[in-house]
Structure formats: structure tokens, C-alpha cells
Amino acid sequence: MHHPVKAALFLSFAFLPFAAAAQGAKPEDTEVWEPVPKVVTPGATNQAPPADAVVLFDGKDMSRFDIPAGTVWNVKDGVVTIQPSQKQQEKPIVIYTRQAFGDVQLHVEWRAPQEVRGEGQRRGNSGIFLQKRYEVQVLDSYNNRTYSNGQAASVYKQHMPLANANRKPGEWQTYDIFFTAPRFNDDGSVKSPAYVTVVQNGVLVQYHTEIQGSIAFIGKPAYQKHNLKEPLGLQDHGDAVSYRNIWVRELTLPGKEGAQ
Fold first, then answer.
1. What residue ranges define each of the domains in the chain, with the CATH number in brackets?
2. Percent of the chain having pLDDT more than 90?
3. 92: burial class by Cβ within 10 Å (0-12, 13-18, 19+)?
4. Are 47 and 32 in contact (CB under 8 A)?
5. Distances (CA, A) of 127 to 65, 155, 252
6. pTM (2 decimals)?
7. pLDDT at 73
8. How many Cβ atoms are within 10 Å of 252's Cβ, its own excluded?
9. pLDDT (tens digit, 9 = 90+) per residue, 86-122?
10. In whole angstroms, what is the distance from residue 72 CA to residue 69 CA?
């Protein structure tokens, strides 16, 4: 999700902390380049939705998402692909589900463009947003060096993946995301943080990872109190990333109040 500092001012996330930018902070301050996650070659996988899943994209239409002006998602042959534009590269737009979710199991299949253009954060960039605030990075990270906590399957700018399990550009990738929503006290303080486990292409890449707060391109992440259930999102960052077979299961987790 790396782009010039001035582009951060155009981000559509009102909750992002920009105070650090005014104090002379730089995006590079929170980039982690070492160590580099080891490369693990994934196996083949293709998973159909279970019976109790809410299907967010079945290959026919995007009716379960609110799609604002300025972003175009083209549906064809069971796949939805972001229509790229230079303008959108400078202003990422997230489309959100009409339905809100709390603790979930989320399955997403995505594909970076087969034709490689750019490098680092400018190659097949998108993202999956949990509760509008917490991002699992989508990026073409096959033989593509970038900061480790910004490559595919990272909790963006917070936690690098345990391994690089990416397939080649143009091949389908699978994320299975297990998310525990944060809980807040009445005064807005964090009662329990969010956690996420991610399996990419059958390889464990995040294990019960504690999320440190809302994503921040510049500066440190922080929590702001929000509802137990919030929408999920997909990011248009200007690249022609494709998605298919997106479904979610609402979870009832032991010991967690506000069960689904």
C-alpha cells in the first residue's frame, strides 16, 4: 500500500491518524525490511462455501457491496476485477459489505495481474479490510521485494507473515482468515484486542496475531472504539486485482460476549 506521502492525505479512511505526519513522521518509519519471510511453495486448493456461509460474491454480481463513485468492479465469467486507473492509485477506495460482521471466518480468492508492472507496493496492490479498519494486505509478493510488514498476508504495517506462500502472478491465491473482533469498555478503552489467523494457499502465515489498532500509513496504529459488528471491505488501489468465491461464516466464540 506504499505511495508518496502526499497521497496519504487523500486516503478515504477518516479514522487514520494523521497527527504523526504533521510532526515530521515518514512512512518509512514503520516499514520493517528485515527479516524476510521464507518462501514456501503452496499446494493446489479450491474451496466451495460451507452450508452456513454468507456468500458475498458468487461470481454473478456485487450486490452485497456498496460501491461508491470513483471505483469500477467488472464482473465477468465468475470473476470480479478492479478497473485500474492512475487516479485511483493515488486515492485508494475501499468498497464495504452492506452487512456488518463481528467474529468471522472469511474465505477470499484473489489474483494479481499476470502481466507484471511496477515493483514493491505498486504491483498487484489491494487489501482485505476487517471491520473497516484492520487490513490483511493483498499484493503480488512473488519475487517482489518490499517491506516485510507490507507484503502479501501481512497485517498491514503491523505484522509480517510467517512465510511467503505466494503463487506466480496470474495464478489464484486463497486466504482463509479467522478474525476475533476487539471488545471495548464503556470509556472507550480496549477490553480485549482483535486477533487474526490467516492461512494463505494452505500455509499458515498469521497465527493468533494481535492487531494493534486501525491501520496507519504514517505513524503507529491505535484503537478507536467501534461497534461489535462492522462491514468487511475490499480495496481498490489502482491495480487490476481480481476476486472470486468470497464467503464468510459468523462465529460464536467461547468466552466472548456479544456472541453472534
1. 5-11+55-250 (2.60.120.560)
2. 69
3. buried
4. no
5. 15, 10, 25
6. 0.82
7. 97
8. 10
9. 554 567 899 999 999 999 999 999 999 998 888 999 9
10. 8
